[in-house]
Amino acid sequence: MLLKQLVKGLSYRLVQGSLNTEVCDIFYDSRKVAPGGLFVCIVGTQRDSHDLAAEAAAKGAAVLATQHALDPAVAAQYPGLTILQFENTRYAMAMLSAAYFGRPAEAMTMVGVTGTKGKTTTTHMIRQVLACAGRKVGMIGTNGVYYPGHHYDLNNTTPESYELQKILRQMADAGCDACVMEVSSQGLMMDRVAGIHYQVGVFTNLYPDHIGPGEHGSFEEYRAWKGQLFRRCDVGVVNADDPNTAPLLEGHTCRLITYGIEQKADYRAAKDYRLLRTKELLGVEFTLTEPDGHTLDVQVGMPGLFSIYNALATIGVGKALGLGDAPIHDGLRTTVVKGRVELVPISHRFTILIDYAHNEAAAESLLETLRAYKPNRLVVVFGCGGNRSKLRRYGMGEVCSRMADFLILTEDNNRFEKVEDILADIREGIAKGRAGVPYVEIPDRLDALHYAIDHAQEGDLIAVIGKGHEAYRDREGVKTPFLERELIEEYAAETGVE
Fold it and tell me: How confident is the model over 68-77, as a mean pLDDT?
């Protein structure tokens, strides 16, 4: 593709060379540069890749996209090199990438979900609702990339702009007519989603997070970047109950649909929701009031108050996109999120689920939700990661001892620490919480899963937490396959669990 086609509509200064230069691909990692490529020089938090411009040129880069002046020796040494200067090369890379891959977002209905908690679950719910409506859907987020016949992991919730546009191209080429994606504050601040217009944007909730060096300077800044999504969408579906909604929406340009429980909202759930628990389901049912005053009951195949909020957001999206009631309600009832309160239906006698909760706040929220189902015993199988803060271990021990009836302490990802040392730290937390809680220590996590199943009692609710969707176990830096759902199902089949 000619450079002049890639830069159409962008502001830049041609420092050297020609816009008729042929570009074979776009790179921002100097180690990957190929002859004929366009190398984007980025001013990062750790390093400035303008310092690598000469290396990229030596590897055959045809074009350099810069944000500030380069060492004059680079231009002098490579007179055939084309050099462009942009005000912001992160933004430029996003727009160049969109053009290079043929602006794939324009071929799909784009739905972006932002907030602190609930993004992953809400994107899964929206994806399932759209699928039930007959749409071919792609999804991008914490759990990776999904589109029909494909799934792979990502390093970031919102990928770098080049990777994002490449993924969108793959989805469009596979026939997807919709894409649902998590849009992180970092993704907005670092221009990873620049150039993408969303038909619907969603706001779940906001809590202090991602504040510190290399991230956001303050909570207000964090909130402001989240709010940028609502200047890039046609319809915003927002949580009326969150106190940050109004300041987050300052300057918004979209039509708004509200949802909630406490405050007046377009889609409002009654406070007196019902808990549902069977072998195949651990969920909730609530009464929904629509804008015209019509009421109907809605079932969600995931437990807790937070699932109601996620479902309300999904309903708002479905209505904004003109979907009927049937696919919306079928989708909410059948959504499964890997590693997020994921039921493993192996027995009528007890309930076992897996969840990614791996810190004090997440564990407390989950166990409070599960306690509401009034189980015979609430059993928690957990450990903590190695080479991480001991405060997390103390907190997990304290919360789990206070809220559970029985604990099974085991490994998580030990990395380069001894599991015995990690369990000792968890025991300190237990002593601060409820020292008398009964527990056992089983260092091998597979043995711990087997123990939980073998000793389950009628009506127990067993929460296996910490690893969730992860498909590996990390010991001394070596990762080996370990997918808990499959291991639980295999053991249940071998032992004839009923």
Answer: 94
Torsion from C-alpha of 202, 207, 213, 214, nearest 10 degrees: -10
Triad 333, 339, 345: Cα angle to 5°: 60
Burial 430-439 (b: 16+ CB within 10 A, else e): beebeeebeb
pLDDT in tens, 231-265: 999 999 999 999 999 999 999 999 999 999 999 99
Instruction: For 290-437, list the strands marked E by DSSP.
Output: 295-300, 342-343, 351-355, 378-382, 406-409
- pLDDT tens across 313-359, in order? 999 999 999 999 999 999 999 999 989 899 999 999 999 999 999 98
Buried b (16+ CB within 10 A) or exposed e, 10-42: eeeeeebbebebebeebbbebeebeeebbbbbb
Which two three-digit tokens encode residue 105? 């977002």
Q: What is the DSSP letter of 434?
A: -
- Token code pair at residue 50: 């303008």
**Residue 156: which pLDDT band, with cuts at 50, 70 and 90?**
confident
CA–CA distance, 73 with 16 (Å, rounded to integer): 13
What pLDDT, on a 0 to 100 scale, did the predictor assign at position 210?
A: 58
Q: Is residue 432 within a helix (H) or strand (E), and if so which, with residue range? A: helix 419-433
What span, in angstroms and rounded, lies between the C-alpha atoms of 248 and 206? Answer: 9
Which amino acid does the sequence have at 96? Answer: L
Q: Is residue 486 helix, strand or coil? A: helix
Check if the beta carbon of residue 77 is closer than 8 Å to that of residue 61: no
DSSP code string of 435-470: TT--EEE-SSHHHHHHHHHHT--TT-EEEEES-TT-
Cα–Cα distance for residue pair 203/243, rounded to 1 Å: 12
Confidence (pTM): 0.88
Nearest to residue 241, comparing CAs of 306, 183, 300?
A: 306
Q: Which of 238, 316, 307 is nearest to 273 (CA)?
A: 307
Q: So what's the pLDDT on residue 214? A: 64
Q: How many CB atoms lie within 10 A of CB 146?
A: 19
145 Cβ contact list (under 8 Å, min separation 6): 138, 139, 151, 152, 153, 154, 167
What is the CB neighbour count within 10 angstroms for residue 390?
15
